[in-house]
Amino acid sequence: SLSGCPRATFAGKKGKLSGDEILNTKFKTSDVLENDEEIKQLNKEISELNESNSEMEAAMVKLQSQISTMEKNLKNIEEENKIIEEQNEALFLELSGLSQALIQSLANIRLPHMDPISEQNFDAYVNTLTDMYTNQECYQNPENKDLLESIKQAVKGIQV
Fold this sequence. Notes:
This is MYT1 factor. By secondary structure, the chain is an all-alpha fold.
């Protein structure tokens, strides 16, 4: 029986409350009303927080969508830049080949007041040639006409 068990007796004593303790633990009606108002206030705050969380989640989804779009645009731009770089490299190689062909073709032709064409003076030489052909009226004397004709013959074989 439980009456003879020391553990059961101890548990029973532990579970019993005195009369003063029972009175102290009972709720008063004013405490219940205050707790009810507090619960209503807490429920209101919880609903406001839930609403705020929903708005934040929607904003987060929108931001993630924008980030995803920006990442796709960046990837496309990087791919376009790579293609442009490859095209620039190909054009640079073609330009280099053309400049070497022009240097070889015009190596024996000397322009007035200039050294023979080389890589060092290539830009100045081309600028002088451009000026000669755009302002041909300044180069109408027979010596300059022969020079222009020899330049035409020298560059005639260059394939562009």
